[in-house]
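Q: You know discrete backbone vocabularies at least as well as I do. I have my own habits and do not want them to colour yours. No explanation is needed for now; the record alone will do.
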Amino acid sequence: MLESQSLYVLIGGPVFTIILSALAFLIIEKYKTIYAYPFVLFQMFMRSFSLLFGGFNNQDEAKISIILGIGPYTVGIIGILILFLLVLSASYKLKIDIKYNSYLITMCTLCELLVIATYEHLKWFHK
């Protein structure tokens, strides 16, 4: 595969994540509904979780940075920053405080760890 084709394939995941979060933010902006908030928060959480604990060099953002010849963390930092700003803006619009966001992130973390534990258990079970 050509390097430019590889770049376009790699860009798809992070760009879709940002687009989904931005669309949910626009719904919050227009309708002031809390029901779209998880789609903003969870996108940031999942990208942050995978970048921090999934081996940064294995993530699309690191590969994109390498292909572009910029620092390996540049695209990841930009992506997380965009997602964080969307969460911050959505929280402000909906008047969601840090305490509630901390609770939501704790619940997201517990659920993610449960998924990982289940996957590891099933992997062990099928040996």
